[in-house]
Amino acid sequence: MSIIYLIQFYLYRTPIILFVNMLLLIALCKIFCILVLLPILLIKWRKFYSKKREERQQTGTVVGIFHPYCNAGGGGERVLWAAVHAIQTKYVPK
Q1: Residue 75 region, left (φ>0) first, then alpha (ψ -120 to 50), else beta?
Q2: Which pLDDT tens digit goes with each residue over 13-49?
Q3: Spatial contact of 86 and 68, defined as CB atoms under 8 Å apart
Q4: 69 Rama class: left (phi>0) / alpha (psi -120 to 50) / beta
């Protein structure tokens, strides 16, 4: 074999080998991110948001009132505010 043939072979093969190596490196980085970094990130987020949830926990009683048509002028407002007053007197804020 001549030296010119070897040089041509090397010059034509080198970009292909580099391209394949880069593809393998990218594939390994993706696998590393999926198998290692993603679970670590999910665990950190879970701990962070569970702390936030504990901070938001309310110790008192929460009451919601739905009273439709209380603005119709037929005394519905009076009934609504009587119910609110009864709840406030029964569950006095601490």
Answers
A1: left
A2: 777 777 888 889 899 988 988 898 889 999 999 988 8
A3: no
A4: left
Longest CA pairwise span in the chain (Å): 107
CB-CB contact of 91 with 63 (8 Å):
yes
Query: What's the rounded Cα separation, in Å, for the pair 64 and 45?
Result: 32
Contact 79, 66 (CB under 8 A): no
Residue 14 has, within 13 A of its CA and on its CB side, a CA count of: 6
Residue 80 host element (H or E): helix 76-90
